[in-house]
Design goal:
single chain; about 80 residues; about 0% strand
Length: about 80
């Protein structure tokens, strides 16, 4: 389960979060900045767990499913 979460689903945003997290972590270590360390931890956590600010696919618009496969009879009127 954890291996599947870590090694699958790598898209552009996940790579971007990983890159930002590593870059900010290096800067935080070099400058001894605790806020930058927190920010790096935040981005690295998002990259590893594949979550965003709202959770996994939390910002996506939900797909509405049809109420059923009902076929409606449509009446046509002929216009002359």
């Amino acid at each position: 389960m954890i291996n599947q979460m870590l090694f699958t689903g790598w898209n552009f945003m996940r790579w971007l979060r990983l890159g930002l997290g590593v870059f900010i972590a290096v800067q935080a270590i070099q400058t001894s900045d605790p806020f930058a360390g927190f920010l790096a931890t935040f981005f690295l956590f998002q990259a590893v767990t594949n979550t965003g600010c709202c959770g996994a696919a939390g910002c996506a618009v939900p797909i509405s499913k049809a109420a059923g496969n009902k076929v409606e009879n449509v009446e046509f009127e002929e216009v002359k």
